[in-house]
Amino acid sequence: MTDAIARAARFNRECDCIGANVPALQQRIDARLGGAGLAQSIVHSHPHLFSHTPVFVARQHALAMQHLISAVEAVVALPAYREEALARAPAIARLAQKTRSVFFGFDFHIAGTHPQLIEINTNAGGALLNIEMRNTHQACCEPADACLQVAASAQSLEEAVFGMFAHEWNLARGAQTLRTVAIVDDAPGGQYLFPEFLLVQKLFAARGLNALIIDARELAIDADTLTGQGQRIDLVYNRSTDFYFDEPAHAALAEAYVRDLAVITPHPHAHALYSNKRNLVTLSDEGSLRAMQAASADIETLMTSIPKTRLVNTNDESWWPNRKQWFFKPASGFGSRGTYRGDKITRRAFGDVLRGDYIAQTIAPAGERRRGDSPGNFKLDVRSFAYDGVQQLLAARLYQGQTTNFRSVGGGFAPVHLLVPGLCAPAKSGCQ
Q1: Which fold has domain 308-363?
Q2: pLDDT tens digit string along 331-349?
Q3: For strand 390-399 and strand 220-221, is the pairing parallel, antiparallel, or unpaired?
Q4: Predicted confidence (pLDDT) per residue in 369-391, tens digit
Q5: Residue 280 pLDDT > 50, yes or no?
Q6: Which residues touch 367 (CB under 8 Å, ≥6 apart)?
Q7: CA 432, 65, 84 angle in degrees (round to 5)?
Q8: What are 180's strand-pairing partners?
């Protein structure tokens, strides 16, 4: 373990620095969104969305995450990999797309020399909320201030997000003019991250676009045009977790996607190639990667950064006695729904795993964040938001329990301080 990685781990164990002024952040969000559709103060509706506790990440780890993202992109580009991944996907996902899909999220546990990739999301939430948090980042000591000086500003990150959507549009429509964007989900006003929808709406509106937040059931096809709320829709920012538009409520989305009546991003094709958890089986199997003619350097990166992942074979009697080394996840699930740690699982739940479509991933311990003023330790993971293979933003999540959640007092999205050698060395009490 290098000195920088060891320092980051020590700061996460010992440092009592304050990274975000959460009350000021909550007031800022209330002020920005109170007249835009936020029904009540975020203090009451989302009390544990943000944490004031910063998470320290060594620059070496951030670079390792980018190397992993690049290796995944290189493998996904291989014909043999694409053939395998798309063969198990529905027909709608096999439609080739010019667009890349916005807001990839690569989720990592960082507890050793190499960050461990836990999953890949093609519909990752939280980027705009974390960008908003940048406006209230604060330094509590001179060295910590140096970390903030090298961090990207909220304004530059917002420009990168808008540029990502503009690039998607240009890939699909060239020089045509983008006028109306729809942020689409099921009952969006009831979604936990609805405040982020409002932030995205403001992002588009500030750049002269008509931006709507629409329930997927309000969409319709009218004269070869996707419409919603009586307006023509050019681009859909798709937040639905019905990744292949199977449900009747998403019939208009499915038709618009198949007939290319609107640019839809993220889309089913990307989910099939990246986010189906069965893909982790391939990406963590050296033999399969060599058979696909992946580059040796990419294979080495994947082997060191992705925990061994297997399909759960119901005929293999070794699963139960060896369960403690595995984390079980639904192959087609999202978030933490239906997931089980093998050392915590009951016989009854294990029966559900055997009857379901599950993968098992070698347990990669989450990192820990401790504070002298908080009861208990927090687990942490780091999400790398990326677009077109390039890391854009690092965001941490602090939680207590088996899986990430926004229910832990003192937990939630946390600011990331990137430790750049020679610049960042927090010196608050406990950080000497």
Answers
A1: Dna Ligase; domain 1 (3.30.1490)
A2: 877 666 778 989 989 988 8
A3: unpaired
A4: 998 777 779 999 999 999 999 99
A5: yes
A6: 9, 12, 55, 109, 110, 111, 379, 380, 381, 382
A7: 160
A8: 210
Give the distance, in angstroms, between the CA of residue 100 and the centroid of all CA atoms in the same chain: 15
* Nearest to 73, CA basis, from 298, 297, 310: 298
Q: In the numeric block, which tokens belong to residue 112? A: 């050793």
Where in the chain are the domains?
3-307+364-419, 308-363
Evaluate whether 363 touches 325 at the Cβ level (below 8 Å).
Answer: yes
Cα angle: 424, vertex 430, 432; to 5 degrees: 50
Calpha distance 28→22 (Å, rounded): 10
- Six-digit token pair at 34? 């109170």
How many whole angstroms separate alpha carbon 57 and alpha carbon 231? 45
**Closest Cα to residue 184, out of 225, 227, 128?**
227
Nearest to 383 by CA among 397, 369, 370: 397
The closest of 210, 169, 162, 215 to 188, measured between CA atoms, is 215
Cα separation, 312 vs 302, in Å, equals: 21
Please give the Cα distance from 90 to 51 (Å, whole number): 40
Q: Is the link from the previous residue into 268 a cis peptide, with omega within 30 of 0? A: no
Say if CB 133 and CB 21 are below 8 A apart.
Answer: no
Strand partners, 413: 50, 397
Distance CA 81, CA 291 (A): 10
Query: Residue 432 pLDDT more than 50?
Result: no
pLDDT digit string (tens) for 220-234? 999 999 999 999 999
> To which residue do tokens 């074979």 refer?
313
Q: State phi, psi for 236 to the nearest 5 degrees.
A: -110, 120
Dump pLDDT digits (tens) for 57-92. 999 999 999 999 999 999 999 999 999 999 999 999
